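Kindly inspect this one:
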Amino acid sequence: MLAVVEIGGNQFIVKKGDIIDVKKQDVAVKKKMSVPALLISDEEGKETKIGNPTVKDSKVEFKVLEQFKGEKVRVFKMKAKKRYTRNKGFRPHLTKLEVLSIA
């Protein structure tokens, strides 16, 4: 089974056993969370359920594996011939999730 879920403003295609990194969720480590699915399909794509906006009575369960900071993103600004430069760094807070079940 494949499912499309929306977490933190981003959509992910997931199947059972997948591990994904999403924007920080307010759930403790080793706890479970569930999200409704936007689309559910089998592996071949023969049987597909499309939601409006979510599939009725659908649930994708996740287990929170860890809360961590992502790779550093550099933000660099420069104006040519004006001796103006700014360099900033940013590390986003992320959550690692494992898909337990799709129903």
